[in-house]
Amino acid sequence: MSERIQALHALRAFEVASRYGSFTRAAKELALTQGAVSHHVKTLEGLFGCDLFDRRGPKLHLTEHGRLLAQELKVGFKIIENACALLRQDRYALRLKAASTLTVRWLLRAVDGFKRMDDSHSVQLSSVWMDIDTVDFYSEPYDCAILLSNGTFPADVESMKLFDEWLIPVCHPDYLGQSPAELSVLRDCEFLHPSPDRRDWRRWLARVDAPYISIDQGQVFDTLDQGISAAQQGLGISVVDLVLASADLAAGRLVTPFRQAVATGEGYYMTWLKANPKARQMARLRDYLLGQVPPLALKDINYLYG
Questions:
Q1: Alpha carbon distance 197, 39 (integer Å)
Q2: Domain range holding 176?
């Protein structure tokens, strides 16, 4: 039994070191010495008869054997962690990660409605800035996440699309007027870019056959929410997701000077580990959120697929 426990300690030390690529950082997380972590790894290498790390250079690199072992241990330790978590915390609480703009523009209100509908299932919503939406369920403290994605996820992740991303330019009602405008007027507009790489404007212009319009000028923001806010203040013209801007469009705080909405091929997906023991609670939240997506009910919009 003692040997089995020591082997478990060694496997844990190796798994943490494999994530960081460093014995020193692994030692800090595990409250061990660097030498102890190194000894654990050498013990495993002796047990398996193969090298687990390539130790050339300042950073550790997994060998092929090490990569295979780390991949399986990552899953195994997460299962153990989930089993223990059920006894340490509210087993009905869901820890949900989502991007800040999605949270502000839609999710916060939707989650509040879910809590009011069934107060026995609480949701701890964490709003996080993400330039590119990602989650690592093995190292981050979340049960589920809502991510903007093309729908490709690891084999151990379950996913359900909530709604597609449709991009369309918007501005204050007085900026260009409320009648449909010609694309040529964009040459004289102040572009508002919701992300530093300006990808949304680039995708929209390419799909409406106007790549000749330069988007090098204009204000650059970190989030879609900032771009929407700037457009509301009449500072220029932004490109937004139709669902996330639906409330502002319905209230007349924003208008769509062009009638082409472009599908990016991405959408907002609710994701979670297949092995998560809270599958029933997540299914209830997923089904509720699907019913809270506002319809794309704008008049005279031409929806263009990529």
A1: 45
A2: 92-306
